[in-house]
Design brief:
With 247 residues, the protein is mainly α. The protein contains ten helices and no strands.
């Protein structure tokens, strides 16, 4: 099978899997429970379908791809916030701190993109791509760092592998990590690596789609009293932060 045929096959598979994920989200009423994740799933389906339709038009495809990439990165960041928001709901002070951190992070990312556009020399499309790539790299680093922190301290968060939130974090972690590696490779070897890495990226995204759909379809295990007891550390942090805010 040729390289282009392989990419096309994975592309069609991702559209099928993405349709299945959106159907599961709608069927189980999870769009209200996870609005950011639902929006992310619907947008990736729309973006993949649109890009598949315009792939024969080079200029249209170029701008459509990078615009969709930028929006997808921001929505992925919102999914990470949603995961932490769900886990920190019982701890208002920590949730408030997390919200502030995410808001400032988004502001910094937007400013970084604007600075790159202003400072980058060359054609307008090169400025646009450079800005998206810088923001994407910074966002992926933050995402991977936060998700690693979440998995390392999963006991403190009362998180276990049978929870749907764990599946959301795991699927996004797989894709974000592969994306981060791809960005590093692209920065080192240039655009020549892009077509080769497209297959790896497609495989990673399809795996993430299967992880998300599988976790949503599986019966979720409630947090046991023993696991809930491990959240005492978070309660202590929340109490300390509450006293600091309102002192």
């Amino acid at each position: 099978m040729s390289h282009n045929a392989l990419i096309s096959a994975f592309w069609i598979l991702s559209l099928v899997l993405n349709c299945g994920l959106v159907a599961v989200l709608m069927g189980k009423g999870s769009l209200r429970k996870f609005p950011f994740f639902g929006t992310y799933a619907i947008f990736t389906l729309f973006a993949s379908g649109l890009l598949y339709l315009v792939q024969g038009f080079r200029v249209t495809y170029f701008y459509t791809y990078w615009i969709c990439e930028g929006v997808s990165v921001i929505l992925g960041f919102a999914v990470v916030y949603e995961v932490f928001g769900r886990l920190l709901t019982p701890y208002p002070a920590l949730r408030r701190l997390a919200l502030s951190i995410f808001q400032w992070s988004i502001l910094v990312l937007v400013l970084m993109g604007c600075v790159v556009v202003y400072a980058q020399s060359g054609a307008q499309q090169n400025k646009f791509v450079a800005a998206v790539m810088v923001v994407e790299e910074a966002t992926r680093i933050i995402e991977v760092g936060l998700l690693m922190f979440l998995f390392l301290f999963s006991t403190a968060f009362g998180l276990h592998w049978r929870q749907s939130v764990f599946g959301m974090a795991l699927g996004l972690g797989i894709f974000a990590t592969v994306e981060l590696v791809g960005i590093a490779m692209r920065n080192y070897w240039g655009a020549a690596i892009h077509s080769s890495f497209a297959v790896v990226r497609a495989v990673a995204f399809n795996i993430s789609l299967m992880v998300w759909a599988g976790y949503l379809l599986a019966r979720e295990k409630e947090t046991s009293p023993v696991e809930a007891a491990h959240r005492g550390q978070l309660e202590q942090w929340n109490q300390v932060l509450t006293e600091f805010i309102y002192q």
